[in-house]
Amino acid sequence: MFNDFIRHLFPRMVLRENLKISYTFCLGGMAFTLFLLLALSGMLLALYYQPHSAHAYASILFIEEEVFGGHFLHSLHRTASNLYLLLMFLHTLRVLLTGAYRPPRQLNWLIGFILLCLALFSGYTGYLLPMDQLALWATQTGMELLRILPLGEVLHGFLVPDAVGEPLSLLRFYMLHVVILPMATLLLCFLHFYHIRRQKGALPYL
Ligand code: HEM
Ligand code: HEM
Fold it and tell me: Considering the domain 24-198, what is its CATH architecture?
């Protein structure tokens, strides 16, 4: 039964054109690799990071100065987060330029778009966590901008029940950053890959 299940995940026919590196540049694959790197480095950081307003900044200083490899790990997480977004934008550009958003791939385009929104939100929630002045004021600005959008007040009330950087809002940003958003991203990535496999028989547009 297990073998049957695995066999059904793979298409019967794969077009050589669809596998060419000059067509995909493997940008999606590289974005996923960086997501895995972010998850790994993030989990290691979470062993020392304390999601409380009074201790967060001190725990970052501790990671930077006392933890073995802490400075490297912190920089790795931050650099990988920038590269992750960059690769995703380049992947989107590739999909746009090759017209791969058109039927039959329109659903995967939509899933990809949600993945892009999740990545941007992951970066935004992560940005508050170090709780330095830059983090506080940048998040404050973003939250004020959110208020003017439709349903903005409701979202603001959910994300910031006290004030930006106060205990409850920091905890919500933390939970979103390390549990909810990564799990949603992983789930959608698998759905994205499932559709890619299913459509490997469809011709590329270029
Ligand atoms: C399972 C996934 C993840 C976990 C467990 C995780 C965990 C953490 C933790 C504990 C921190 C606070 C420590 C610190 O500031 O270095 C942090 C910060 C941060 N994370 Fe993540 N993270 C994950 C995924 C991501 C993703 C997907 C992104 C990017 C889009 C991201 C972007 C950031 C950013 C920008 C910071 C602030 C870094 C700084 O400026 O100090 N993280 N993350
Ligand atoms: C976490 C983010 C993402 C990951 C890991 C990912 C991964 C992948 C992979 C591995 C492929 C196979 C071919 C390739 O590498 O180009 C692919 C194809 C595709 N992706 Fe993504 N992707 C992501 C985000 C996006 C975004 C933001 C969009 C668009 C808004 C998108 C739309 C598509 C479409 C339409 C295809 C099919 C293209 C074709 O068959 O030519 N993806 N993705």
Answer: Up-down Bundle (1.20)
